[in-house]
Amino acid sequence: MYRIAILEKDRAYLERLIFFLKEHHGESFEINAVETLFPYTTLFRSVESLEDLDLEIMQLSALFFGDDVPVDAALFPANVAVGYLTESDETDEQHINKYQSMEQIYKRMMCLCEAVSTVDA
């Protein structure tokens, strides 16, 4: 199981993504998310900003950021994958287009997590 954090300002998109991941791939990810609409489950925990994850970043497998979340990937340890949920065209394996199917998004997230864990090992 990979521990990931998703920071996304589009609340409706975040809700759909988390619901899909929970329903279909709950065994793959433990998720922390900004403004999650699922406060009743222990799998998801709401955080308001990256600072709320500060102490946990070293324990995460990956961080995924929406287009509207400012981030400098150089600030994170090499063993934490950084991915971008973007409305733009994908430019590399770190960029995941938000408009593809949820299953494709899941597969891209898994590939990113697996690539970093392979390098880390």
Shape: globular
Mean pLDDT equals: 78
Rg from Cα: 13 Å
Strand content: 15-25%
Protein described:
With 121 residues, the protein is an alpha/beta fold. It is 28% helix and 25% strand. It is built from 2 helices and 6 strands; from the N terminus they run βαβββββα. The protein has a 6-stranded parallel β-sheet, with helices on one face. β1, α1 (11-25) and β2 (29-34) form a beta-alpha-beta unit. The radius of gyration is 13 Å and the shape is globular. The model is unreliable at 35-45 (pLDDT under 50).
Task: Give a concise summary.
This protein is of the alpha/beta class.
Topology:
Blueprint (H helix, E strand, L loop, with lengths): L1 E6 L3 H15 L3 E6 L9 E4 L14 E5 L14 E6 L8 E3 L4 H19 L1
Parallel strand pairs: 1-2, 1-4, 2-3, 4-5, 5-6
